Structures are given as structure tokens and as C-alpha cells.
Amino acid sequence: MDTPSYETLLKAGCHFGHLKRKWNPYMKPHIFMEKKGIHIIDLNSTTSNLEKAGAAMKALAKSGKKIMFVATKKQARQTVSRAALSVGMPFVTERWLGGMMTNFATIRRSVKKMDNIDRMLADGSLTSVTKKERLTLTRERNKLERIIGGVAKLNRVPGAVFIVDIHHEHIALAEAKKLGLKTFAMVDTNSNPELVDYAIPANDDSSKSISVITDYLVGCIKEGLAEKDKSNQEAAATAAKA
Fold first, then answer.
1. For residue 57, how many C-alpha atoms fall within 13 Å in the half-sphere facing its CB?
2. pLDDT (tens digit, 9 = 90+) per residue, 177-206?
3. Residues 69, 234: contact at Cβ < 8 Å?
4. Separation of alpha carbons 115 and 106, rounded Å
5. Contacts of residue 68, Cβ cutoff 8 Å, sequence gap at least 6
6. DSSP letter at 97?
7. Running DSSP on this structure, what letter comes out for residue 21?
8. Domain boundary at 120, 150, 180, which?
9. pLDDT on residue 119
10. What is the pTM of this model?
């Protein structure tokens, strides 16, 4: 997967940080300069850390581990959900429920409840209920889909998480760290990159910036999945000859 060029990163506004007064001192190594009161992120750091994160995600995908995408900010939801779906990864883009990972059994019960409602609506077992009751169930089902639909097929805690804005998604990050999961994140100048295993210094408020970073990482995951499929096919072929 080709790393985004400096021109691409610049056009996407990946270099724009927050106001100087809002900065986190731990981001100092990743800041190029300050201009008109705004910190400018060093794109050399963005590129090198993006490549490291991409290589690690590729390895995780090749090993068969799931990477959960987390981005509940309005400007990131559509981009991140689409990216996660393209590689069959779980995602949370509506609202992070406390205990989403640390109390995973509760989330599985909510998924089961959603599946039960789907089954009842589909098999005609609700013929005796009123239109109002059916509408209430449908609304409840849609609410569950919106909040936990992205993790409905996740049967166990993922191997890693990718977060857009750890300042905004601090609960998700705390849960991931408590479980010892690998953490990847876009980190802006107002956050502490040392809280993440693979921090990617970049503007986490711009939809274009989020898209460029996420697209690259998804490309790396696709490569990992392709290599996994190839290895499985070779193993199957070897077994068939034996």
C-alpha cells in the first residue's frame, strides 16, 4: 500500500493542529511549528508513524485478529463505518456504551435481543400484537442497530482498536488499555500520544484528513487479509496432496 504523499496530506489538512493554548506538551516532538496561534503538525512524523501503524495492522489482519474502529464524531462516522465494513471489521460510530469491551457479555445480550426482534418481525409471530406494539419493537430494533449494529457479528473481544480522537473517545481507550489490547489512533495536538501504542499525529477534526489516514490503514488491512487467504489456500492445497 502506497503511503499518502505530502501533497495529499497537505490538501487534506492533516497538518493543522489545535490552538497553541490547547496543546498537550507530549505532542512537542510531532509539532513542526506554530503559525498564527495554531500548531502545525510535522508531516514527516505523520508519515513515519502511519507506516508503522499500517504494518502492524497488516500483521494483525494476516493473523486473523479483529480491529475495532471507533469514531463517534459527526465528521468521522460515515468515513470510518464505510472503511470498517469494506474489510469486515467491527465498528462503533454512534455512541460508545460504557463496558462495550470490558463487559462484552452485556453487549452480546443486546445483540441477541436485536436478533430476536428481527426473527419475530420476519416469521410472523407478531400477528397478535397491535400496530403500536409492532412499531415500538421496530423502533427499539432500529435504535439497537444504530448503536451496536457495527459489533453484531463480533463474537469475542477484538485484538486491537483504531480510534479517531483519543481525547473524545477516552472511555474506549481506557477500556482497550485495561484489556491489554493494541491501540492505534489519530492523535491531534491536544492529546497525549504516549497513551497509544501506535499514535498517528494528524488533524482529527477534518473529514478529509480522517479519510486519507483511514483509507491507507484499510489498504494495509486488505493486504494482510489477502496474504491470510493465500496462506490458507496454500495450506489447503498441501493438505490435499498429502
1. 32
2. 999 999 999 999 999 999 999 999 999 999
3. no
4. 14
5. 89, 90, 91, 92, 101, 151, 154, 158, 160, 161, 162
6. P
7. G
8. 150
9. 82
10. 0.91
